[in-house]
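Usage

Read records sequentially. Each one opens with the input sequence:
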Amino acid sequence: MTAETGLDQGRSAFREQRWTEAFESLRDADRQGGLPAADLERLATAEILTGNAATGIESLTRAHEEYLVVGDIVGAARCAAWMALHLMNTGESARAGGWLARGQRLADELPVPDAVQGFLLIPACLGKLYGGDPEGALMLFSRAAEIGQRFQDRDLSALALLGRGQATLELGRPEEGLRMFDEVMVAVTTGELSAVPSGIAYCAVIGNCQVAFDLERAMEWTAALDRWCSARPDMVPFSGQCQAHRAEIFRLHGAWAEALAAAGMAQERSGRGDPQALYGGYYQQGEVQRLTGNLDAAQASFTQAASSGYEPQPGLALLILARGDAKQAQTMIRRAAGLADTATRRHLLPALVDIELAVPDVQAAREAAEELAAFARDCPRPMVRAVASQADGAVKLAEGDPRGATQALRQAWQLWLGLAVPYEAARCRVLIGQACRDLGDETSAGMEFEAAHTEFLGLGAVPAAAWTASLMRKDDAGTPGPLTAREAEVLRLVASGQGNRAIAAVLFLSEKTVARHISNIFLKLDLSSRAAATRYAFEHGLAP
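and closes with the structure output:
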């Protein structure tokens, strides 16, 4: 094959987004006779999209230099801007800053304004956005949007609008931000944008929809991203992030085996050229492991997620709570929520309520629940209303208002059912059962506990099933004999395989108190081991 033939084939494959063929044809043409700057830029894109980021950066550097040789300052500056974005994506901030400075210097030399000046604003915009200055980011993104509109550059306009949406969301105006995301996605799904901006938009919009508790939008765009990636099977960037988003959707819907499979695929892709998938792949894996009671594995997964530079919250704080250290969990979640932007803080509030109630600090839990209630009033989407109602019901239960708790919790339960989120729906039923018990309706309480227990067992949610079992009172055939009601609860958890720390977390006790209860159980029942206690529990109908 001649270099000219290979070049033609490479250009054709690039236009049709057949990235492996484009990469191979353009590489071969380059080896035979070199490539002009525009084709080196195409080669770099194809390399990056097939997971060859290092060689892609080298090709983009060569394209930049070739543009300078032929006097194309705009092309050289554009390569510098994309170089800065790609290097920021891989965490090489110093190199990214160097390329950004070079690109800006070149743009300053232009005799007339050009769209590339808007592209060079994007890395600076992102620096402000992720550096805790959403107001400043919004101003810069708006300037970039004006440049994009002036030069009718669709890629720049979409990236700028995407950034404006993210900054608006962080400033606490989610409905406005989500409308901007919808407009961006119109450009993506109609094929107006090139591949890299399309992938950036897909992943950023989905992630922000999940932070904003907009499960319906997240599901819709995740399905669209999955179709987009499936049509480009050789594309590595964005495909791992797609799997991480799929893992979160699967987890919420109770398909935990599928969630783990998707999380594993995200991890694999993160090592092949989609580094942004690292956090989501390990965080979602850790969440499933936490919910199923595999706490050591969850700890390892959250540690891997943290290596991405993002803090694995609220999962890590809830893991610490599950291990029985409510005060440390409180310290951790309070610090994370206190430092977070508005959108991220709202994402942490449900866990903050749960942990404050476990300490217990009911007043702090009430304050967090009120924040969620205000959020729900401003943005009455189903998932926001579900988390707000659930938090309100849990706090009212702790405040001694079982009637008010029941009303709020039933509303949350219905919303979770409508969203097909079974774990949270079952948690609501347990709390409703506790409210029924507080009102003296033991029959209804038992029905709620039984339904929730069955759901938890079906999900494989061992800690939640054990918690529910500890609340289920047996009939006369299963009375605890010489044990107190609290000792019977401890015995049921021992029989479910829980250690002292986990039992302490479930019952909101100290480990020392749990150890004392177990000692009393052994003494009263003349037992000498946990195995014997477990056997006794099963023989006397006290096991979960």
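Summary fields computed downstream for this record:
- The chain has 30 helices and no strands.
- Residues 115 and 150 are 8 Å apart (CA to CA).
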